[in-house]
Structure formats: C-alpha cells, structure tokens
Amino acid sequence: MDLLPPETVRAEFAHSTTYLNTATCGVLPRAAVAEVRRLAEAAGAGIPSGFGDFDRVNRVRGAFARIVGVTPDRVAVGSAVSTHVGLVSASLPAGSEVLCPEGEFASVINPFVVRDDLKVRFAPLESIAEAVGPGTALVALSAVQSADGRTADLAAVREATRGYGARMLVDATQAAGWLPFDASPYEYTVTAGYKWLLAARGVSYLTVSEEAQSTLVPLHAGWVAAESMWDSTYGPMPELAHGARRFDESPAFLGYHAAEPSLALLERIGIEAVHAHDTALAARYRAGLARLGREPVPGDAPIVSVPGLADRQGALLAAGIATAARAGNLRASFHLYNTEADVDRLLDLLS
Question: What whole-number distance in Å separates Cα of residue 78 and Cα of residue 256?
C-alpha cells in the first residue's frame, strides 16, 4: 500500500518537531487539542459542560471496542494499565503461577511481583509458549515490546494456554492504533490510550471476556460501576453494571474528551492503512541503518531500537528530532503523522 498522503495527515496535526517517539507518547490531533481546551475553559468558567460528559466516555468505549474487535460490554475504562493489571492480580488465588517474558514492561509484571504469595516465573519472549506448563494460571505479556518492538507470537501462546487451562493477559499498548489487533481471544487485555491511539494520559482500557468477568472483583468500584450510576451516588450500590463497565474507574474527562476525535481519526483512516504506512517507514529506516553499518533489534514493527546509540538521543533532541533511549538502545517509533523525510533526516544525523 502507498504511504498516507502527507498533506492530508499533516493538516490534522500541529507539531513542529520531527517527532519519532510515539512509543513514549503520541501527538494529539488538532481536534483533540480543541476538545481539551473547550472542556478546560468551561471548567474554568464554572459552567456545567465543564464537568465532563459520560456520554462521550461511552462513545470512546464503543470506538475502542470497534478498533480491537470486541463489543462495548467487554470494555472498562480507567486511567492506567497498572491499575487494570492490579485488578487481575488481586483475583488470583495464593500460590498461582504467573508466566511473563523476561524484560517485560514494569506495569505488566509488578502488580504480580508485589504479591509475595504468587509465583512469578520469567522466560524469553521467543520461547514463552513453550514455557507454559501444567502449573501456569496466567500468562501476562505485551503484544509488542516497549523496549525494542519485538512482537509476541500470541497465537502460539494462546494455543499453549488453552492446552493447560491457563488464562492470558495481553498488553496492547504498543500495538493498538497501528497493528490490527483482535482482543476477543483473550480473557484480559489492557491498553494505554496515550500512545498509538493518540489520546492524553489518563486514558486506558481493560477488556474482559464474558466468561472471565466473573473472575474479577471490582475492588475500586465507585458509583460509576453501578448499573444505574445516578441512582447509586450515595450508600451501597443496588446493582453492579452488567458488563465490564463494573470495572470502570471514574474517568479523567480531559483525556477522554481528547480521545473521541483521536479514535475517530484512526477509524476514518483505517488501522490497516496506518499499519502499512508505519511499517513502511520503519522498513526504510532499517534499510538506512544497514547502509550505515548499524544493526537494529530484528522485527517489522514501527518501533525500531538500535543497540549502542542511546547516547545520541540528547543530541538528536537538540536538533529537533524526538526519539527515546530505552534499555541501552536508541528507539525511534513511526506513526501516521511521520513521513519519509522524517526518516531521512534521522538517518542523516546518525551518519
């Protein structure tokens, strides 16, 4: 597929840097910035529209559900991946074994590690499916690794967990928004919304299969977790929400008001088109690195990490190119607002 037309996408964004750091935080589209400004100004003026809009939050829930291939009743909204993972961790009986990849992102593993009555076991990402055993209760892993863009063989892990009756928790933070990702095969998925999904911090999503909803206790249930929210603002709630909304946190409205136009933009372009665009830019960068005699971590994701170049991140930033230094690597990540010229500028400076 051809790259996305730069002039079309550029009109949606106002950034002035060569921004190659979506794996850290995405760029807000102009429409999302306008929504944040509108809500903040209303809050500052003390008018009711500044309180935030639950209907908008539910529209965001529906848009995210469409993007990851589930129904809205499987989606809970929150503010951080670690909170969602903590809910899953709290559901496990003492003595349960949790299997995770070595070097996995901290928010995916720490809620299990801090429970000293769980057995947390680690294995290389490439052999995680083979490491599943009869004692494994849960496999928790990222679809795409934050540090270096390596991609998990989720189908192989799913087959292995089914063979042993284990559940899966998949972090789609570095996948949803550029990779066509289907959340439906997994008991739990968690996704931060401020990276490839182009929202602001304070937006995150938990999907829970219908069967697995009975395994979680909504420990942080407030009035928003009730089936009828406005009848549950005082005293014990008469009834929990029937679907995954029972696991909702009270939303950070600025982030969710930003998320609606951001998800609408991604849906309008189409994740398949974003995938083709992002991976083509990454392939161009990988080819350029080879010409420079540099070997990145193998893969085909739009997250490209180069060992031995982490110390160049500061100089690149001073030159107006935003990248990241992660796990000793220089990490560049390419998204829909990037162009071939951005890739070439990075390569020129690295040469």
Answer: 10
- Largest interatomic CA distance in the chain: 66
Domains of the chain: 6-28+270-350 (3.90.1150.10), 44-267 (3.40.640.10)
Residue at 25: amino acid letter: C
pTM score of the predicted model: 0.96
- For the stretch 285-310, pLDDT in tens is 999 999 999 999 999 999 999 999 99
Cα–Cα distance for residue pair 85/285, rounded to 1 Å:
34
Token pair for residue 116? Answer: 């000293």
Residue 65 CA to residue 59 CA, distance in Å, equals 10
Number of H helices, E strands in the chain: 11, 12
Over the stretch 234-246, which tens digit does the pLDDT of each residue have? 999 999 999 999 9
Report DSSP state, residue 226.
Answer: B
Token pair for residue 191?
């996704």
* pLDDT for the residue 1: 46
Antiparallel, parallel or unpaired: β 119-123 and 97-101: parallel
Handedness of CA 36, 38, 41, 47 (dihedral sign): negative
Q: How far apart are CA 343 and CA 276, in angstroms?
A: 15
Q: By the 8 A CB rule, do 111 and 86 touch?
A: yes
